[in-house]
Design goal:
CATH superfamily of one domain: Leucine-rich Repeat Variant
Strand content: under 5%
CATH class of one domain: Mainly Alpha
CATH architecture of one domain: Alpha Horseshoe
CATH topology of one domain: Leucine-rich Repeat Variant
Distance between the termini: 89 Å
Mean pLDDT: 88
Largest sheet: none
């Protein structure tokens, strides 16, 4: 009898729990659907005035702000502007930034930034990434988050600060992330590309600040390599001499990654005086470095490097041989003569040379 009662109680409890979970999930789903419908409706309502201001058909920023209901409209409003910011450029981008910084929205995220809750701070950081006229207290608050134990939150704060008009503030954010361990290559590259402000003519100042950062000995070698390569990709050609001086002085050339980055950047900059020193690493034990040497010599286009490239064309590693053969093929008649000598050495190299030449002629 007791066993039957126990089974009945357990069954009843399970049924009640199941009903409770079902009703709760139904309520939550209904609430989410209503919220989504409300957000969509508000977004549709706000879109005409936002587009009119963005396209220059209206200059009445106050009229847009007057439509806002805070906090209900914060998400649909900022989501819409963020979507548009990712699609436009030029003057339209500036007008969208004006919309993002209307007082009601700004006050909402200002409060979140100083609230002390990590999720609120993360939301605020995402917002401030699109606002470039940070106040002193906002800048200082974001700076304080750079050393936060939560790496994602710290990165969000850095992303906000690299929108700052001051190059010195922007490099501070990059430096804070570059000093951290276990920061991904993509995360650091994103910051560096954001760091370069195409809206301000600050190439010279930016380049000097990045060079000063590269010269700091406390940065992980992988991050130094990323900084050097990004400088070349962004186009800080004015720092080619300073970079070569570090390379010539042997600054951290014991690192394969950094050595590879030196070769890449100086080749990308087209800094001819570096050719002889780069060629000196043609016998380096790392095949990635030897490959970087071949590619750098190709980029420099120096016919004096043909002998070095012929040696690399006979390397034990295929990726090095490929880089050297491509380099020779692009060095004009002297390079092609070098290819003839290389192809005559072995059948394997002959096949490789024919393959490369066919690819270049295609």
């Amino acid at each position: 009898m007791l066993a039957i009662r126990f089974i009945w109680l357990v069954t009843t409890a399970l049924v009640l729990v199941t009903v409770y979970l079902f009703v709760t999930s139904l309520i939550v789903r209904t609430w989410q659907e209503r919220r989504a419908r409300f957000a969509a409706a508000r977004r549709d309502a706000l879109t005409p005035s936002i587009l009119a201001y963005t396209l220059g058909d209206s200059d009445d920023l106050d009229a847009v702000a007057a439509q806002l209901k805070v906090p209900e409209d914060v998400i649909p409003y900022t989501d819409l502007i963020t979507d548009l910011l990712n699609q436009v450029q030029g003057e339209e981008t500036e007008r969208l930034r004006h919309l993002m910084a209307v007082p009601a929205i700004r006050a909402h995220f200002h409060q979140k930034l100083f609230k002390g809750d990590e999720s609120d701070e993360a939301e605020a950081c995402m917002y401030y990434a699109w606002v470039d006229n940070l106040t002193t207290d906002e800048t200082d608050r974001l700076r304080s988050i750079l050393d936060h134990g939560n790496r994602l939150l710290a990165h969000a704060a850095a992303t906000s600060l690299v929108a700052h008009p001051s190059a010195a503030v922007r490099v501070e954010a990059v430096a804070a992330m570059a000093r951290r361990e276990r920061v991904s290559r993509l995360a650091l590259l994103e910051l560096l590309y954001r760091f370069h402000s195409s809206r301000n003519d600050q190439m010279e100042e930016e380049g000097a600040l990045l060079m000063a950062l590269i010269a700091q000995p406390d940065l992980p070698e992988s991050h130094v390599a990323i900084l050097i390569q990004a400088m070349a990709d962004i186009g800080y050609v004015g720092e080619a001499v300073a970079l070569y001086e570090l390379f010539e002085a042997g600054y951290r050339t014991d690192s394969d990654r950094i050595l590879e980055a030196y070769c890449y950047a100086l080749g990308r900059f087209g800094f001819d005086p570096a050719g002889e020193r780069i060629a000196g690493y043609a016998s380096h034990p790392s095949p990635r470095v030897r490959q970087a040497v071949a590619k750098a010599l190709e980029a420099l286009g120096d016919a004096a490097a043909i002998d070095t490239l012929e040696v690399l064309a006979a390397d034990t590693e295929l990726m090095v041989r490929m880089a050297a053969v491509f380099a020779l093929a692009r060095l004009g008649e002297a390079g092609k003569a070098g290819l003839d000598r290389v192809s005559a050495s072995t059948a394997d190299l002959q096949d490789l040379v024919h393959h490369v030449m066919a690819e270049l002629d295609a």
